[in-house]
Amino acid sequence: MSASASLAMTHLVPLAKELDEDKVTPGVLGFIVFAVMALAVWGLMKSMNRHMGRVDFPESEDPGGRGGREGAEVAGAEKRG
Question: Could you list the residue ranges that cross the membrane (predicted)?
Answer without folding.
Answer: 24-44
